[in-house]
Amino acid sequence: xxxxxxxxxxxxxxxxxxxxxxxxxxxxxxxxxxxxxxxxxxxxxxxxxxxxxxxxxxxxxxxxxxxxxxxxxxxxxxxxxxxxxxxxxxxxxxxxxxxxxxxxxxxxxxxxxxxxxxxxxxxxxxxxxxxxxxxxxxxxxxxxxxxxxxxxxxxxxxxxxxxxxxxxxxxxxxxxxxxxxxxxxxxxxxxxxxxxxxxxxxxxxxxxxxxx
Length: 212
Description:
CATH class: Mainly Alpha
Oligomer: single chain
Distance between the termini: 43 Å
């Protein structure tokens, strides 16, 4: 399991000639880092005097955001491994030898399905990553003000993860013949990136306004 590797071992595997982990796992790992950094801000907030002085509704919002960012962090770690698994399955199908037209057709159908499964993982990363922005925003609004720059780093890392995930979606699309399916996926990916850019910039404005 990739998520159980030390950072050093993960980096060594990434740098090696192994086909996986690759860019898909990196995008999921980056999203996990962004979510973790967001959680750190909350965890260094909830026992402080300023937090205890907040009204109960705000406290509930912060605690819910911490719970959700932690859950997403774990989801991204699972998706790191899932991406590598789906890629290896794709490679196995791609390498299959065919002896006749019937086998060739079966392989083509299997490959198309494998492309869809391969892009499904980074697409899930992108869909989940966009949600983390809401929690980063809460961290910047109500978190420990000494850590607001960490909120900014979280936002920048998240956008990198999000766009990296979309790139790994797009690279699989040429292997799919269903044009309607591809068009829907492209529209969703473009919308996620655009939304992410807006949210990232809004958070960074808030960060820079606070640090002067």
